[in-house]
Amino acid sequence: MTEIQHELIMPNKDLPFKMFLFEGRDGNYIREKHWHRSIEIFAVFQGTLEFYLNDQEYLLECGDFIIVNSNEVHSIHAPKENMTVVLQMPLNMFEKYYTGDQFICFAHAPQAQDEQLMEMICEMYMAYSDKHCGYDLKIQSLFYDMLYLMVTRYREINVHPDILHQHKQLTKLSVITDYMKEHYKEELSLSKLAEIFGYSPSYLSRMFQKYAGINYKDYMQAIRTEHGYRQLVETDMTISDISMENGFPNNKAFSKAFYKKYGIMPAEFRKRQKSAINKISN
């Protein structure tokens, strides 16, 4: 049985949300079942995707998009080449529009405004790729227009009680993971975290395993490794300094966690990044 994993999402450095080209764009790609707190949109501009949302299959073709709600289990199969833009939006962006119990839910059915929303996403991604003066303002202007469409056209008001119950449990865990994301540089043991939130260490450990599909230590490492990845790409800091900056005891521990997540050692990854940049420059 395939383990359902929790996905850690961090916004783009220069935007309040995350936007990127789907990593399965070259085809022959499968993203196994996973979930996350963020609201997510997959917008297909070329090719097709086989999308599985709560065990229901959707075939997304050119011009289609799908909205993934917070905590919904989904997987993606991309057998062929495609161009798909993915947007991942923090749940708190919608807090004024929660339907109850800190919850919001979106549906996707073909409607007249689908084309309008796809055009917005396309324009946002093109502006982000070009990065002309003021690109971040233009993107955010389009982004909030898109959010307006989402809450006025796609929001569902009546939600099944079972969905709300599951959401409540995941919300409890999300408060804890949000704290971890803010304090990841500190020495934050399971016992210390449990004490802060009034749980026993064993109960908190079970909560992580049951609702996140990952243990506490691995989740903490994932946060630190993601920050380390960014610093490898965006700064000239040494690997040793990056390790210490992000809560790892030494660069050996960081390298081990980085290899486990990305399949390559940090030094080799940085070397390839610089080589790729030099090729583009020349």
From TrEMBL:
Residues 174-272 form the HTH araC/xylS-type domain. The keyword Aminoacyl-tRNA synthetase does not apply. Pfam families: AraC_binding (PF02311), HTH_18 (PF12833). InterPro entries: AraC-bd (IPR003313), Homeodomain-like_sf (IPR009057), HTH-like (IPR037923), HTH_AraC (IPR018060), RmlC-like_jellyroll (IPR014710), Tscrpt_reg_AraC-type_HTH (IPR020449). Keywords: DNA-binding, Transcription, Transcription regulation. This is AraC family transcriptional regulator. It comes from Anaerostipes hadrus.
